[in-house]
Design goal:
Elements (H helix, E strand, L loop, with lengths): L2 H18 L6 E4 L9 E10 L3 E8 H12 L6 H27 L3 E3 L3 E4 L8 E10 L4 E8 L1
Helix pairs in contact: 1-3, 2-3
Length: about 150
């Protein structure tokens, strides 16, 4: 990854996260590191092409459930609904990240289908380039990890 883009990645990720998160959910970036509860889920994807990196979203299940409820407009959501929503959330986020990387540095990339898992699933042997932490008004947390191989 070219150095000018490497410096921009945290701002790109944060801008997109703020843009696509429903205002009703009210997440905000924080410097706190202990934002996650013990009940978390993970979704990740790998970027290929001009930018070879991995993006991992770790989130409190309660937050992703609430975001799913808000998105589909129903109180009763199944675990599969939460998983599907979480994967689609990362899909949308990555699509906008790829577009911004192209605008900023002219780098063309694509990303793989997001993979969901219950718990904390982070690829082994990866170097963490940056971690963005977010909390909601209900003290639910999200961490976005930008990893390189």
């Amino acid at each position: 990854m070219i150095s000018s883009l490497k410096k921009e990645i945290p701002d790109i990720l944060d801008g997109v996260m703020q843009e696509i998160t429903d205002p009703k959910v009210k997440i905000q970036r924080t410097e706190r590191k202990d934002v996650l509860s013990k009940d978390v889920c993970s979704v990740q994807t790998t970027f290929e092409g001009g930018c070879q990196t991995t993006l991992v979203l770790l989130a409190d299940v309660a937050l992703m459930r609430r975001m799913t409820q808000t998105a589909i407009g129903e109180e009763d959501v199944a675990a599969q609904d939460v998983e599907d929503f979480t994967k689609e959330f990362l899909n949308v986020l990555c699509g906008k990240v790829v577009a911004r990387m192209f605008q900023v540095a002219g780098i063309s990339s694509r990303f793989c289908i997001p993979v969901f898992c219950t718990g904390r699933c982070i690829p082994e042997h990866a170097t963490c380039e940056c971690i963005l932490n977010y909390t909601s008004a209900y003290n639910e947390g999200v961490q976005m990890l930008h990893l390189s191989s």
